[in-house]
Amino acid sequence: MEVYRPREGLASRPADIYVHVERKDGVTEAPQKAAWEDVLNEGLIRLHVRAVSLEKEAERFSLMLQSAFEPIDSRFGEGYFNSVLITLVRSGPFARKPDVARVLRRIREDEPHRSQQCLDCKEMIDNALMARGEELVAELGYSQPEAETILSGALAQYLDERFNVTNRELLGW
Length: 173
Fold this sequence. Notes:
Layout: E1 2-4, E2 7-8, E3 11-12, E4 16-19, E5 32-35, H1 38-46, H2 54-76, H3 78-91, H4 98-104, H5 116-139, H6 144-162, H7 165-170
Helix pairs in contact: 2-3, 2-5, 2-6, 3-5, 4-6, 5-6
């Protein structure tokens, strides 16, 4: 499978999924296009369908993080969620990954007030990240180092988009 999500100016168009099928007789069929839907993607994961490259897998998992984080964002509010997310990423192993570190340098968020609410939000974010990592290893058969590379790329893309890092750079801010 392949995710296609081109940029138009400062925004990205809605994502499409292209499914590449190679028959048992070795004949490769033309890719089948469908609009990105979480349910379709989840079905492809359950069928152990990998993306065509690690980069495309990171793009796919970035969209999956977006979906996984939406209910957490809704529950705690955008500002609080952002604060907890950035604090968690800065203090965790992803902060040492070059793609994530580059994005983190351009993000300014205050640390959240330490409370049970903060712990609950952190736990939900951690669970979402761990679930994506588990899918990469258990469902798609990636090695632990490959899964870490994909997930750090996905997280970097997610943070870049959420905090408009590339857009601010393009505008000279």
